[in-house]
Amino acid sequence: MPLFGRAITLFTIFGFRVRVDLSWALLALLVMSSTAQSFMGSDEPVPPAAAWVLGGVMAIGLLFSMVWHELSHSLVGRRHGMKVRGITLFMLGGVAELEDEPSTPRGEFRMAIVGPLSSFLLAAILGGARLVRTDLS
């Protein structure tokens, strides 16, 4: 499954081993670099060190959102009787590593749709938190 042939185990959650392929480091560097450049080139520039730290925070946020998305697929798959070995993140996204296929079309649909729904939920939660924070300012 890994693009570069090696994946590093980050942690285990709900019995699923979460791994990251070395190709994900390229994505993290792109996110960090573009975020840092954006902060340093804004109307109120941020010092380079702080801009790179913010880029790192963005990369960690991306990692969290990818795990959240794949974890939702994995949990629904388990609920429908599928064995899930773990989750691997790589440069182009992530994958829940299934040992078998869903036994029913309903299970397949639920497993497929829950990932995007969980991402929309996360976006709504974070967007709502931003609105609350803006109202408090």
Helix content: 55-70%
The order of strands across the largest sheet is 1-2-3-4
How large, in whole angstroms, is the Cα Rg?
A: 18 Å
Global shape? globular
- Number of domain units: 1
Measured by DSSP, the beta-strand proportion falls in 15-25%
Overview features:
alpha+beta, four-stranded mixed β-sheet, globular
SSE topology sketch:
Elements: E1 7-13, E2 16-21, H1 24-40, H2 48-79, E3 84-90, E4 93-98, H3 105-136
Parallel strand pairs: 2-3
Antiparallel strand pairs: 1-2, 3-4
Helix pairs in contact: 1-2, 2-3
3D architecture notes:
This protein is α+β, with helices and mostly antiparallel strands. It has one domain (7-136). The protein has helices at residues 24-40, 48-79, 105-136; strands spanning 7-13, 16-21, 84-90, 93-98. β3 and β4 (93-98) form a beta hairpin. α1 packs across α2 and α2 (48-79) packs antiparallel against α3. The longest helix is centred in the middle third of the chain and has 32 residues, at 48-79. The relative contact order is 0.14. The mean pLDDT is 90.
